[in-house]
Amino acid sequence: MCGILAVLGCSDGSQAKRVRVLELSRRLKHRGPDWSGLYQHEDCYLSHQRLAVIDPASGDQPLYNEDKSVVVTVNGEIYNHEVLRQRLPNHKFRTGSDCDVIAHLYEEFGEDFVNMLDGMFSFVLLDTRDNSFIVARDAIGITSLYIGWGLDGSIWISSEMKGLNDDCEHFESFPPGHLYSSKEGELRRWYNPPWFSEAIPSTPYDPLVLRQAFEKAVIKRLMTDVPFGVLLSGGLDSSLVASITARHLAGTKAAKQWGAQLHSFCVGLEGSPDLKAGKEVAEYLGTVHHEFHFTVQDGIDAIEDVIYHIETYDVTTIRASTPMFLMSRKIKALGVKMVISGEGSDEIFGGYLYFHKAPNKEEFHRETCQKLKALHMYDCLRANKSTSAWGLEARVPFLDKDFINVAMDIDPEWKMIKPDEGRIEKWILRRAFDDEENVG
């Protein structure tokens, strides 16, 4: 995860303002310790703190089009960048960065290109030809982003609130799946999937379709030029992620660079069930397993730092963020810069215990839709900020756009929990992988 901070249309293009933007950008340095970049055009500033996962050698930001009239600062990963490059045969790319396509797509397709991006991202794009700009955030809000307004009418954008709170009279979370256009002066939603309306879907459940969609979601996230691993608690979601990753790692570019044996990571209090289950799954899959222990006092001592980084006082989020924060520090110390995680499954499939009480499939489906819409304030925020506090990137295949479309289009009757029929929570996901050939 990188850190971006932009100040657009301020009344001050002075050196003092530039120094202030640099100062604020440094508050995000933990997100991207590999490179710092600042671009200024008149009264607009785009700064970037880079965590280099793709093309560490030449992908420093900001990024540009050919004549440098379009400037972009991006946080995230564009998984379909190679396909998108093929759609831009007349463009020359300066770097191998996956984010390099954004400026060129804007040149070719205008503001409506955002829906073409498959990935997790937040970006600010400045068109210096007319000083217009756009800001966008990924569909579910996997990457964090905030928008603020200065007293001079300027618009501020930052990956974290700590880049805005001292200089903006008002700031708020930038909504997921939205785009801000300076030409229109307002936000609009670019992500409009069928499930967003909460209409009840009727597609029959096909285990093979669901399994293949999730396998694709995991495989595309193996795109990396740096050492990586998987978070493995031993539960269903992380075990599926680890299983698919272990099976498909051998043929990837990452395996050629860093070896074909997968590394897995688990954290817990001494004797916790997560540590026991994670170890069992790791032994079954043959991963190089790293088990981290912490004490209750370690957690208490870390709370102040955890709140500083995750920027919320939500009790459940803080509680869940603390072990992830402590584990991320250990993972980064091993030289790992990216992990794949299992967030999002419970929201899509109704995995929480209270879903047992759903009176009918309509209420079940509406609740999953509402949980997905709110994820950016809870689990996505936790996963993004707990890891980026230590310059670690977390990828979440359950929140893949294509996979969500498949899973949320299934008739929710199939997701209903029916103990008398042997259907426990997330039964349809379990059944999709319930055979020796495809799980191990």
Automatic annotation (TrEMBL):
Q: What class of enzyme is it?
A: ligase
Reactions performed catalytically: L-aspartate + L-glutamine + ATP + H2O = L-asparagine + L-glutamate + AMP + diphosphate + H(+)
Pathway terms, separated by semicolons: Amino-acid biosynthesis; L-asparagine biosynthesis; L-asparagine from L-aspartate (L-Gln route): step 1/1
Q: Where is the Glutamine amidotransferase type-2 domain?
A: 2-185
- Residues engaged in binding ATP: L231, V267, S341, G342
* A molecular function (GO) term: asparagine synthase (glutamine-hydrolyzing) activity
Residue numbers binding L-glutamine: D98
Q: Which residues form the active site?
A: C2 (for gatase activity)
Q: Which Gene Ontology terms of cellular component type are present?
A: cytosol
Q: Does the keyword Nucleotide-binding apply?
A: yes
Q: Which UniProt keywords apply?
A: Amino-acid biosynthesis, Asparagine biosynthesis, ATP-binding, Glutamine amidotransferase, Ligase, Nucleotide-binding
Q: Which Gene3D superfamilies match?
A: Glutamine Phosphoribosylpyrophosphate, subunit 1, domain 1, HUPs
Q: Which InterPro entries match?
A: Asn_synth_AEB, Asn_synthase, Asn_Synthetase, AsnB_N, GATase_2_dom, Ntn_hydrolases_N, Rossmann-like_a/b/a_fold
What Enzyme Commission number(s) appear in the record?
6.3.5.4
Q: Give one Pfam family.
A: Asn_synthase
Which one GO biological process term can you cite for this protein?
A: asparagine biosynthetic process
Q: Which residues are tagged with the site Important for beta-aspartyl-AMP intermediate formation?
A: E343
**What PANTHER family would the database entry show?**
ASPARAGINE SYNTHETASE, ASPARAGINE SYNTHETASE [GLUTAMINE-HYDROLYZING] 1
This one is known as: asparagine synthase (glutamine-hydrolyzing)
**Species of provenance:** Kalanchoe fedtschenkoi
